[in-house]
Amino acid sequence: MSTSIENLKTFDPFADTGDDDISQPTNYIHIRIQQRNGRKTLTTVQGLPVEYDQKRILRALKKDFACNGTIVKDDELGEVIQLQGDQRVKVMEFLSTQLNILKKNIKIHGF
Amino acid sequence: MASVDESVTPTAEEQLEFDPTIKKKKKKSKAVSFSRDDLDDAAPQDETQVDELTDMFAGLKKKKKKSTSSAPLEPAEDASAGDAGAEDNVEDFDFGSQKKKKKKKVADVSAFEQQLEEAGVNEEEDAGEDDTFEKPEGEEEGEGEEEEAGWLNSDREYSYEELLHRFFKILRTNNPELAGERGQRYKIPPPSVMREGNKKTIFANLKDISDRMHRPYEHVMQFLFAELGTSGSVDGNSRLVIKGRFQQKQLENVLRRYIMEYVTCKTCKSISTHLAKENRLYFLVCESCGSRRSVSGIKTGFQAHIGKRKKMLG
Fold it and tell me: What digits encode the pLDDT tens for the residues B19-52?
């Protein structure tokens, strides 16, 4: 590094930008949508941090969105919350406001 | 700031010298003759104005004298200022030529107006024009360029806007390819989507689109299925048949996400990239800037069981 040049001292272009480091180790929360028959859909929330009680989250979600839902246990992915209807944006809002999960760690899939 | 400005000025001055002379010649042939011959009442105004202008634009005048031969300068000045007054008469003649020129300089007009207000407040009072539209036109012709030179010479601090305008103007004239828009490179045809029966969607130009993105269509297909949480197949005419009902807009969104994730180079935003697979990891290599970044593989994630419960158990 040629730090003798005055201008280069203030900003190191090769330094890590920071956001890569933070987001890489944390697991994303994936919110997906699946089409069922007709215009019905399912929303799945996968990868919620284990320290949260999924049952309580589900109960809150069900009440907030006025929909039914279950917890599905998957072999690899652990517990996945399943909700009826397209609740993707609402779930995202809930997670970011109520649980203080960063929005960049949430990924919304589907159309 | 100053150093940058100095480095730029030589090229700028060349242009500045070129343009006004051309325009002034035109002006003289048209406007000056009119203002001199037909508008005698405008003449006294002009004279007073010239005096004031000499005071006002002490630095500016010098510059002009340097740039063009000294004699025609005063008339030109008159013309531009008197033009505004004279415009009422000259309108028909000048508009054709002026408007063309004006189009080129539309972006600059606002900046010029600001500068005019700052540098030449007196002119408004002296020239006594009624038309607000005439003034910028007339002065832009004769003095616009000089005005710019005027603020270059003046001691006050250059505002960012002025310098930015100046930079882009110079850049546009010297090498337009750098100032050109970038939007064109990203043109990808919209997905043509039809419904097949009640439950399936046909994505007809998948092949076309994936060719345009330089990606194997299998990869695009995989991504689409993972994102939409469905499955599907490719039919005889290499069209993609997706299970489920999707609209063109929805598929467009998914495709946009695909392009963001797997096609565009994050460094230079170009889409001339290719995917390289190295020991089970995908890397996106940019062909225009040579940067590499790893991209995550396409994962389907959790798939809920839909349909008969018997199937789920079995």
Answer: 444 444 444 444 444 444 444 444 444 544 445 5
ipTM of this model?
A: 0.75
Model pTM score? 0.53
In a domain, B204, yes or no: yes
DSSP-assigned letter for residue B289 = T
A46 touches chain B (CB under 8 A): yes
Assigned token pair, A88: 């993707």
Nearest-CB residue to A74 (from B247, B250, B302):
B302
Mutation for testing the A interface, residue in B302, B311, B312 having most A CBs under 10 Å = B302
Q: What is the pLDDT of residues B259-293, one digit of tens each?
A: 888 888 888 878 888 888 888 888 999 888 888 88
Asked if A82's CB is within 8 angstroms of B229's CB, the reply is no
Residue A88, min C-alpha distance to chain B (Å): 13
**Right CATH number for A26-108 from 3.30.300.160, 3.90.420.10, 3.30.780.10, 3.90.1010.10?**
3.30.780.10
Q: In what order do the strands lie in the sheet with A29-35?
A: A69-74, A78-84, A41-46, A29-35, A106-108
Helix (H) or strand (E) holding A71: strand A69-74
